[in-house]
Sequence to fold (176 residues):
Amino acid sequence: MLKNMLISAERIEQIVSTMAGEIEADLEGRDPVFICVLKGAVYFFTALTQKLRRDVVVDFIQASSYGATTESSGTVTLIKDVTVDIAGKDVYVVEDIVDTGLTLADVVALLEARHPRSVQVVALLSKPSRRKVEMAIDFLGMEIEDRFVVGYGLDFAERFRNLPEIWEFVSEMEKT
Ligand code: IMP
Ligand code: MG
Fold:
Protein backbone atom coordinates (compact mmCIF):
# COMPACT_ATOMS: atom_id res chain seq x y z
CA MET A 1 0.00 0.00 0.00
CA LEU A 2 1.01 3.62 -0.47
CA LYS A 3 2.09 4.88 2.96
CA ASN A 4 2.99 8.52 2.60
CA MET A 5 4.07 10.96 -0.06
CA LEU A 6 7.82 11.60 0.07
CA ILE A 7 8.34 13.95 -2.87
CA SER A 8 5.59 16.06 -4.45
CA ALA A 9 5.27 16.64 -8.19
CA GLU A 10 6.30 20.28 -7.65
CA ARG A 11 9.42 19.26 -5.74
CA ILE A 12 10.35 16.72 -8.44
CA GLU A 13 9.98 19.46 -11.05
CA GLN A 14 12.37 21.71 -9.06
CA ILE A 15 14.92 18.92 -8.61
CA VAL A 16 14.85 18.01 -12.31
CA SER A 17 15.24 21.69 -13.32
CA THR A 18 18.27 22.10 -11.05
CA MET A 19 19.84 18.93 -12.45
CA ALA A 20 19.19 20.05 -16.04
CA GLY A 21 21.02 23.31 -15.30
CA GLU A 22 24.03 21.45 -13.91
CA ILE A 23 24.12 19.04 -16.83
CA GLU A 24 23.76 21.83 -19.36
CA ALA A 25 26.88 23.50 -17.95
CA ASP A 26 28.71 20.16 -18.28
CA LEU A 27 27.66 19.66 -21.92
CA GLU A 28 30.03 22.33 -23.23
CA GLY A 29 32.38 20.79 -25.81
CA ARG A 30 30.82 17.34 -25.54
CA ASP A 31 29.19 14.96 -28.02
CA PRO A 32 26.44 13.63 -25.76
CA VAL A 33 24.31 10.51 -25.85
CA PHE A 34 21.71 10.29 -23.09
CA ILE A 35 20.80 6.71 -22.23
CA CYS A 36 17.62 6.01 -20.30
CA VAL A 37 17.68 2.91 -18.13
CA LEU A 38 14.21 1.47 -18.71
CA LYS A 39 11.63 1.34 -17.38
CA GLY A 40 11.96 3.25 -14.12
CA ALA A 41 13.87 6.26 -15.45
CA VAL A 42 11.50 7.03 -18.31
CA TYR A 43 9.51 9.89 -16.73
CA PHE A 44 12.66 11.45 -15.28
CA PHE A 45 14.51 11.01 -18.58
CA THR A 46 11.91 12.73 -20.74
CA ALA A 47 11.49 15.61 -18.26
CA LEU A 48 15.25 16.08 -17.91
CA THR A 49 16.23 15.91 -21.58
CA GLN A 50 13.41 18.27 -22.60
CA LYS A 51 14.83 20.89 -20.24
CA LEU A 52 18.24 20.89 -21.95
CA ARG A 53 18.56 23.90 -24.23
CA ARG A 54 20.49 22.03 -26.91
CA ASP A 55 19.88 18.92 -28.93
CA VAL A 56 21.19 15.63 -27.59
CA VAL A 57 21.03 12.05 -28.86
CA VAL A 58 18.76 9.82 -26.78
CA ASP A 59 18.70 6.03 -26.51
CA PHE A 60 17.31 3.34 -24.24
CA ILE A 61 18.67 0.31 -22.45
CA GLN A 62 16.86 -2.19 -20.26
CA ALA A 63 18.45 -4.38 -17.64
CA SER A 64 16.60 -6.44 -15.10
CA SER A 65 17.53 -7.31 -11.55
CA TYR A 66 14.20 -7.25 -9.76
CA GLY A 67 11.34 -9.69 -9.78
CA ALA A 68 8.09 -8.93 -8.00
CA THR A 69 9.86 -8.18 -4.73
CA THR A 70 11.42 -5.18 -3.04
CA GLU A 71 14.89 -6.79 -2.89
CA SER A 72 17.54 -6.84 -5.62
CA SER A 73 18.50 -10.31 -6.83
CA GLY A 74 21.99 -9.07 -7.60
CA THR A 75 22.06 -10.63 -11.05
CA VAL A 76 21.52 -8.30 -13.95
CA THR A 77 20.39 -9.39 -17.39
CA LEU A 78 20.32 -7.22 -20.48
CA ILE A 79 16.81 -7.13 -21.95
CA LYS A 80 17.22 -4.33 -24.47
CA ASP A 81 20.47 -2.84 -25.74
CA VAL A 82 21.10 0.65 -27.14
CA THR A 83 21.07 1.00 -30.95
CA VAL A 84 23.30 4.10 -31.24
CA ASP A 85 27.09 3.72 -31.63
CA ILE A 86 28.58 5.30 -28.51
CA ALA A 87 32.28 5.01 -29.47
CA GLY A 88 33.93 8.39 -28.88
CA LYS A 89 30.72 9.85 -27.41
CA ASP A 90 30.03 11.40 -24.02
CA VAL A 91 27.51 9.09 -22.41
CA TYR A 92 25.10 10.13 -19.67
CA VAL A 93 23.43 7.10 -18.11
CA VAL A 94 20.11 8.17 -16.62
CA GLU A 95 18.76 6.07 -13.75
CA ASP A 96 15.70 6.45 -11.54
CA ILE A 97 17.33 5.23 -8.34
CA VAL A 98 20.66 3.79 -7.21
CA ASP A 99 20.04 1.22 -4.50
CA THR A 100 22.71 -1.49 -4.13
CA GLY A 101 24.45 -0.07 -7.21
CA LEU A 102 24.67 -3.50 -8.85
CA THR A 103 22.48 -2.66 -11.85
CA LEU A 104 24.33 0.54 -12.57
CA ALA A 105 27.76 -1.05 -12.16
CA ASP A 106 26.84 -3.66 -14.78
CA VAL A 107 25.29 -1.16 -17.18
CA VAL A 108 28.29 1.19 -16.90
CA ALA A 109 30.77 -1.68 -17.44
CA LEU A 110 28.85 -2.82 -20.50
CA LEU A 111 28.84 0.68 -22.00
CA GLU A 112 32.50 1.37 -21.16
CA ALA A 113 33.52 -1.72 -23.15
CA ARG A 114 32.35 0.16 -26.28
CA HIS A 115 34.93 2.90 -25.89
CA PRO A 116 32.88 6.02 -25.30
CA ARG A 117 34.91 9.16 -24.53
CA SER A 118 33.24 9.43 -21.14
CA VAL A 119 30.48 7.82 -19.09
CA GLN A 120 28.69 9.81 -16.40
CA VAL A 121 25.84 8.75 -14.16
CA VAL A 122 22.69 10.80 -13.64
CA ALA A 123 20.31 9.54 -10.95
CA LEU A 124 17.16 11.08 -9.56
CA LEU A 125 17.40 9.22 -6.24
CA SER A 126 20.01 7.36 -4.23
CA LYS A 127 19.82 5.15 -1.14
CA PRO A 128 23.45 5.33 0.04
CA SER A 129 22.87 3.08 3.06
CA ARG A 130 22.02 0.17 0.73
CA ARG A 131 25.13 0.30 -1.45
CA LYS A 132 26.94 -2.98 -2.17
CA VAL A 133 29.30 -1.61 -4.82
CA GLU A 134 30.89 1.82 -4.80
CA MET A 135 29.25 3.86 -7.58
CA ALA A 136 30.10 7.46 -8.41
CA ILE A 137 26.95 9.43 -9.20
CA ASP A 138 27.96 12.50 -11.21
CA PHE A 139 24.55 14.20 -11.05
CA LEU A 140 22.20 13.30 -8.21
CA GLY A 141 18.74 14.64 -7.47
CA MET A 142 18.20 13.54 -3.88
CA GLU A 143 19.35 11.03 -1.28
CA ILE A 144 16.67 9.06 0.54
CA GLU A 145 16.66 6.69 3.49
CA ASP A 146 16.27 2.95 3.15
CA ARG A 147 12.58 3.02 2.15
CA PHE A 148 10.93 1.36 -0.84
CA VAL A 149 9.49 4.06 -3.05
CA VAL A 150 7.09 4.07 -6.01
CA GLY A 151 5.80 6.63 -8.50
CA TYR A 152 7.36 8.88 -11.15
CA GLY A 153 8.54 5.76 -12.99
CA LEU A 154 9.37 3.65 -9.96
CA ASP A 155 7.30 0.51 -9.51
CA PHE A 156 6.35 -2.25 -7.18
CA ALA A 157 5.70 -5.35 -9.35
CA GLU A 158 5.11 -3.03 -12.36
CA ARG A 159 2.48 -0.96 -10.56
CA PHE A 160 2.41 2.73 -9.60
CA ARG A 161 4.87 3.97 -12.25
CA ASN A 162 2.43 6.61 -13.53
CA LEU A 163 1.94 8.38 -10.19
CA PRO A 164 3.17 11.98 -10.57
CA GLU A 165 4.61 12.00 -7.03
CA ILE A 166 7.04 9.68 -5.22
CA TRP A 167 5.49 7.67 -2.40
CA GLU A 168 6.76 5.32 0.25
CA PHE A 169 5.39 1.84 -0.35
CA VAL A 170 4.92 -0.83 2.29
CA SER A 171 3.73 -4.39 1.67
CA GLU A 172 0.48 -5.52 3.30
CA MET A 173 2.41 -7.58 5.86
CA GLU A 174 4.40 -4.59 7.14
CA LYS A 175 1.39 -2.30 7.37
CA THR A 176 0.35 -1.14 10.83
P1 IMP B 1 20.24 -1.69 -7.62
O1 IMP B 1 20.86 -2.58 -8.64
O2 IMP B 1 20.02 -2.41 -6.31
O3 IMP B 1 20.98 -0.39 -7.43
O4 IMP B 1 18.78 -1.38 -8.08
C1 IMP B 1 18.54 -0.52 -9.09
C2 IMP B 1 17.14 -0.69 -9.62
O5 IMP B 1 16.27 -1.30 -8.66
C3 IMP B 1 16.55 0.66 -9.90
O6 IMP B 1 16.84 1.07 -11.20
C4 IMP B 1 15.08 0.42 -9.66
O7 IMP B 1 14.47 -0.02 -10.85
C5 IMP B 1 15.02 -0.66 -8.63
N1 IMP B 1 14.78 -0.10 -7.30
C6 IMP B 1 15.66 0.09 -6.29
N2 IMP B 1 15.10 0.64 -5.22
C7 IMP B 1 13.81 0.84 -5.56
C8 IMP B 1 12.69 1.42 -4.87
O8 IMP B 1 12.74 1.89 -3.72
N3 IMP B 1 11.51 1.45 -5.56
C9 IMP B 1 11.39 0.97 -6.83
N4 IMP B 1 12.41 0.43 -7.51
C10 IMP B 1 13.61 0.37 -6.88
MG1 MG C 1 15.31 0.93 -12.82
Notes: The longest strand covers residues 90-98. Residues 40, 65-66, 72, 95-104, 148-150, 154-155 surround inosinic acid (ligand 1) (CB under 6 Å).
